[in-house]
Amino acid sequence: MLDAVLTFLSQGLLNAGWGTMLIYTLVLTQLTIFTVTLYLHRCQTHRGVDLHPLISHFFRFWGWLTTGMVTKEWVAVHRKHHAKVETEEDPHSPQIFGIKKVFFDGVSLYREASMIKEDLEKYGRGTPNDWIERKLYAGHPYWGPVVMAVIDLALFGVVGMAIWAVQMIWIPFWAAGFVNGIGHYWGYRNFESADTARNLIPWGFWIGGEELHNNHHAFPSSAKFALRKWEFDIGWAAICVLRAVGLAKVLRVAPALDVRPNVHLPDAETLKAVLTHRFQAMTDFYREVIVPTLRDEAQHAGESLKAVPRRMRLALADGGRWLDSEGRERMQAVLAKRPNLSTVCDFRARLSALMEQRGADQALKGLQQWIHEAEQSGIHALQAFAQRLKGYGVASAA
Ligand SMILES: [Zn+2]
Ligand SMILES: [Zn+2]
């Protein structure tokens, strides 16, 4: 009897080798990542994709079994993150809490945020509330991981507990710590969005495509996160497979930018496209106007571009929004010595303010005036940008 128990504890039912256990762990954790990105995030939170009941029921079960997270809580915390991004009300902004706290203790931040009842009602609307949700998934969220522990133990014996621990740490580490923390801290930006979101790497395959966090913040309801030709989003690949077999319906993808030729006066379509693609426009402004102007002035003064430190150059992209007061003073000193750079930075600030303006007529008049003045500025890069901005149009879906 004792022998049988010891054999079971050391081998489990499968007596599997290390390779099998590794593949098992990777497949199960990948399914959990898909549950988060496809079901909780793209479907439930942002409604970018509709999943067939067969698939959503599987993901609901899988999320309960392997994470114990409750759909309504996850959705509410994440919608609030988008609504209040980088403010004191953002549940997990590294700007507010510091990167260390969000990276190492993102789970506590999530737990605290998920306990605010009013937020659950306000931001968690439209999530499942059927019998199985009330009685099991939301009613007893921790039973799922307990059942998972029993399964791992039964299949692999004591080693199964290590596999279970990896499964349990997977989402807290990759989603709460990595995407919520590093995704607002390190990486590249395609879009000058009004937050610090960054794309970690262009090939989003490990965390289901969530690595492309800057793209996601620029177009939150897009079911597709890869928005450049060289980017890859495995979550989108999975959606395409599900769509091909009738198990998913794509509701929204980010619109593409069209630039129409020969537009002399910006019209309503220009305004619509500029607003839709405002983060792209601001990125273009930085790359095509601010950087060349800075380079030109440096050349004229016979100094290197590096006379302005890299951190300061990057901060010019958003008017120094994330700098502290000392950093802002240094930025003012940089601008004071460079009249053209100062002018284009003023134009950037005015364009950014225009995009926040309410009232279409006022906004269009403001845009026409902005473009007119930019064309008269005598700064070549700014004139070329204004010329292109006039032609902005919304193309059909990408
Ligand atoms: Zn974010
Ligand atoms: Zn989101």
Secondary structure: elements and pairs:
Layout: H1 2-11, H2 18-45, E1 49-51, H3 53-66, H4 71-83, H5 94-97, H6 99-114, H7 117-123, H8 131-137, H9 143-156, H10 159-181, E2 203-204, H11 213-218, E3 232-233, H12 234-244, E4 248-250, E5 255-259, H13 268-276, H14 278-300, H15 310-315, H16 325-336, H17 339-356, H18 360-375, H19 380-390, E6 392-397
Parallel strand pairs: 2-3
Antiparallel strand pairs: 1-4, 5-6
Helix pairs in contact: 1-9, 2-3, 2-4, 2-10, 3-9, 4-7, 6-10, 9-10, 14-17, 14-19, 17-18, 18-19
The chain binds zinc ion (2 copies).
Polypeptide structure, described:
The chain has helices spanning about 1-10, 20-45, 55-65, 70-85, 95, 100-115, 115-125, 130-135, 145-155, 160-180, 215-220, 235-245, 270-275, 280-300, 310-315, 325-335, 340-355, 360-375, 380-390, and strands at about 50, 205, 230-235, 250, 255-260, 390-395. The chain is mainly alpha-helical. The chain has two domains: about 1-255, no CATH class; about 260-395, no CATH class. The strands form three sheets. Strands 1-4 form a two-stranded antiparallel ribbon. It has a two-stranded parallel sheet with strand order 2-3. Helix 6 (about 100-115) crosses helix 10 (about 160-180). The mean pLDDT is about 95. It binds zinc ion (2 copies). One zinc ion (ZN) binds near residues 41, 45, 46, 82 and 216.
